[in-house]
Design brief:
about 425 residues, Rossmann fold, 2 domains, 8 strands, heme biosynthesis
Length: about 425
């Protein structure tokens, strides 16, 4: 096999071939027919933990950003404008260290449950690349993997692009027909993900009240649930057409539904302990826009919203990175620096809640997602905190198209 290809990002796959009788590429027999939810117990040889990746030194920053922006012809001089965020932290993104912690915690949780599955880790844009992960698995004798992407929601970059990454890696290593890859459902409304944010918002409210007893939590505080902005055209193509989501597609609808669930559960917990709080001011905002001004992206921007809060009578803001599973650079820079500075300029008390990271509740939830596929848990028995879910095991046809690139070969979903 092409060992010389290891240590670099694989080229885009030219094809995602189908096994005889299958309508899903590189799928297990339980998924090959394309059913939305799989209720057939399936044995796997390992878990494929898939992530975005990030640099771990100053000399890795520009190569990483070239991978992120590959095919767009962006010169290094412009990449340096973004690189300053990484250079501020010594050229090191926290994401790889967090994935190492998550990998170890997930393996330990699986072993605790008697599911002794190795966790192979591959990145989209930095080492270890996805082709390294599938090669490691194949060399260890694996024939079937269950993929878990570190992204909870439906969109091109958070779901379909990972499925394309798997196809790229399989073709790069000549493993089509030898290694199957299924994928767990998008877990935006799984309790293991949602509950970590419930805890974070509740603790932030307590912290604000402890710091200033005069605060009225119902009127003086704004909760901003924030996620990565994406082009409106791409957002509108997230999720299958048959769901008829409004503008923003499944991506925006899922974030709104999860934010509502978090607020509902926070209020229920506070009322249960006798705090009497019956409402919270909240909204969904967006951050980290990177496209040209002429291209519509999801709005409003978090900093623009923070600027308006004092005129609405707010004295404090709680920023909840609902769209992130760990402290990516967009969290460290765009929230802990820029949004915090915006709050200071508006004379607002500021709290930023944690991301799930390797929180035991989150790790247990990921293990639950793996277990439901091994056991073949029926759809109706799967937990979901919103009416939108539980999401699909096998992505539907035409889901999450990239407007600029169209549909590239992918696995773990119906073609195209």
């Amino acid at each position: 096999m092409p060992a010389e290809n290891l240590g670099r990002k694989p080229a885009p796959a030219k094809d995602a071939p189908l096994a005889p009788g299958a309508i899903v590429s590189a799928a297990s027999s339980a998924c090959a027919a394309g059913d939305p939810w799989v209720s057939e117990p399936t044995q796997y040889d390992g878990i494929l933990l898939a992530s975005f990746g990030g640099p771990e030194g100053q000399d890795e920053v520009i190569p990483f950003l070239r991978n992120v922006t590959g095919g767009r012809g962006i010169p290094d001089e412009r990449l340096e404008e973004v690189a300053v965020h990484y250079r501020h932290y010594g050229g090191v993104s926290p994401i790889n260290a967090q994935n190492r912690q998550l990998r170890a915690a997930l393996e330990a949780e699986l072993q605790r449950r008697g599911l002794n599955l190795p966790v192979y880790w591959g990145n989209r844009n930095s080492e270890p690349y996805m082709n390294q992960a599938v090669r490691e698995a194949a060399d260890a004798g694996a024939k079937r993997l269950l993929a878990l992407a570190t992204s909870a929601y439906s969109s091109y970059s958070s779901c379909r692009q990972y499925r394309e990454d798997f196809a790229d890696a399989l073709e790069d290593q000549g493993l089509f027909g030898e290694l199957e890859i299924d994928k767990v459902r998008q877990f935006f409304d799984h309790p293991g993900f949602v509950d970590t944010f419930v805890e974070g918002v509740r603790d932030a409210l307590d912290s604000l009240k402890e710091a200033d007893a005069s605060l009225n939590l119902a009127t003086d505080v704004e909760v901003l649930f924030t996620t990565h902005s994406v082009p409106v055209d791409d957002a509108n193509r997230s999720g299958p057409d048959t769901r008829n989501f409004p503008e923003g597609g499944a991506y925006k609808a899922q974030h709104l539904a999860v934010s509502e669930a978090v607020v509902r559960d926070v209020l229920a917990q506070l009322q249960e302990r006798g705090d009497g709080l019956s409402q919270l001011n909240w909204q969904l905002v967006f951050q980290s826009r990177s496209g040209p001004p002429s291209q519509p992206w999801l709005e409003p921007d978090i900093n623009d919203v923070i600027e308006t809060l004092p005129e609405q009578g707010r004295r404090a803001v709680i920023v909840v990175p609902i769209g992130f599973v760990s402290d990516h650079m967009e969290v460290l820079w765009d929230l802990d620096n820029e949004a915090k500075d915006s709050a200071a300029a508006a004379n607002l008390a500021f709290r930023r809640t944690p991301t799930p990271g390797s929180h035991p509740t989150y790790v247990a939830g990921l293990a639950d997602l793996i277990a439901e596929r091994i056991q073949g848990t029926p759809k109706d028995a799967r937990p979901a905190r919103t009416e939108i879910g539980p999401w699909y095991d096998v992505c539907r046809a035409g889901c999450c198209e990239n407007v600029r690139l169209g549909f590239r070969p992918a696995v773990a979903g119906l073609q195209p």
